[in-house]
Write a structure and sequence with these properties.
Layout: E1 2-18, E2 24-43, E3 48-53, H1 64-75, E4 81-87, H2 97-112, H3 119-127, H4 135-138, E5 142-145, E6 150-153, E7 162-166, H5 174-180, H6 190-193, H7 198-204, H8 210-216, H9 218-229, E8 234-237, E9 244-248, H10 254-257, E10 262-266
Parallel strand pairs: 3-4
Antiparallel strand pairs: 1-2, 2-4, 2-5, 5-6, 7-9, 7-10, 8-9
Helix pairs in contact: 1-2, 2-3, 8-9
The structure holds 4-diphosphocytidyl-2-C-methyl-D-erythritol 2-phosphate and adenosine-5'-diphosphate.
């Protein structure tokens, strides 16, 4: 049985408060993008994880897919499974690949073993694995707040636009990016600003990770500038980086982009 775990981008990200538990309150718009990892569950003599595709730093036994399976195993009598993960989503990219794998693994186990878990029950399991994970249960554009694990539905579709995603060969660790940020209370909530016309996003919609991540990695800021040079209506680093996306109103001429590490181009 297979699951296709897609990535996300953050259309704006305001870090509003450092919490007493060490986490940060934030507001962001999660927007799913069609670049997928593939997860397969196969009956097996023992529970293990096999990774193919892009290399993931760290020990395979620490893979979040395995963690997600074990969390469910505690509550349900699940038989041993081989978890095969084909990794296509760049890692350390701010694209939520690991979080998505965990959420889609939960959905896959729910389906394969007829656990009859509701969406909110699956969100609860996902939330226990990482702040970003719960979003991928629903996997629709949402306004997210609190740790990024509480949501409000929103009508936002970038159809009729063109999305370019660039992932430079830089790995940004989410935890260290959070350690470097400055929080600020925005004057106007992103929930409101996102309804401005796309042409106005550049002046009003920000990612609060950019200043500290750009200071460490000027190459990422240069990519953003190149996307604007190429006529992007809006460009932003996704999450804690290092990937940067550009939203274009007209088809992009790839030849003219002069960007390496282009990983994604989609309507
Ligand atoms: C920054 C964001 C923006 O969407 O995404 P990525 O860039 O990683 O994709 C997320 O907040 C990443 O969420 P996620 O990757 O699930 O984080 P977790 O595993 O829960 O936490 C990793 C570490 O980041 C910090 N953290 C995370 C979430 C949050 N709201 N405040 C925090 O301070 C904590 O130090 C925590 O120990
Ligand atoms: N299935 C997985 N996919 C990606 N990373 C994973 C996975 N399981 C564990 N990790 C760990 O999580 C870290 C960051 O994961 P990732 O979701 O790619 O972050 P980001 O959303 O910031 O790009 C990796 O460096 C890796 O050590």
């Amino acid at each position: 049985m297979l699951a296709f775990a897609n990535a996300k981008i953050n259309l704006g990200l305001n870090l509003t408060e450092k919490r007493s538990d060490g986490f940060h309150n934030l507001e962001t718009i999660f927007y799913p993008v069609k670049i997928n990892d593939v997860i397969e569950l196969v009956d097996s003599e023992e529970t293990l994880c096999i990774i193919k595709g892009i290399e993931i730093p760290g020990n395979v036994d620490e893979n979040i897919c395995l963690k997600a399976f074990k969390v469910l195993q505690k509550d349900f009598n699940l038989p041993h499974q081989k978890l095969i993960l084909l990794k296509n989503i760049p890692v350390g990219a701010g694209l939520g690949g690991g979080s998505s794998d965990a959420a889609f693994l939960i959905k896959l186990v729910n389906e394969k073993f007829n656990l009859s878990l509701s969406k909110s029950q699956m969100e609860r399991y996902a939330r226990s694995l990482g702040a970003d994970c719960a979003f991928f249960i629903k996997n629709e554009p949402v306004f997210a707040y609190a740790k990024g694990d509480e949501f409000e539905d929103m009508e936002l579709r970038l159809t009729n636009h063109f999305l370019v995603l660039v992932k430079p060969p830089i790995h940004v660790s989410t935890a260290s990016a959070y350690a470097d940020v400055k929080v600020r209370q925005p004057i106007t909530s992103l929930k409101k600003l996102i309804h401005l016309p796309l042409k106005d996003w550049r002046a009003h919609i920000f990612n609060d990770f950019e200043p500290s991540v750009f200071a460490k990695h000027p190459q990422i800021e240069e990519i953003k500038a190149k996307l604007y040079d190429a006529d992007a209506t809006f460009a932003l680093m996704s999450g804690s980086g290092s990937s940067v996306f550009g939203i274009f109103e007209n088809p992009v001429k790839l030849q003219e982009l002069e960007l390496e590490n282009l990983v994604f181009y989609n309507v």
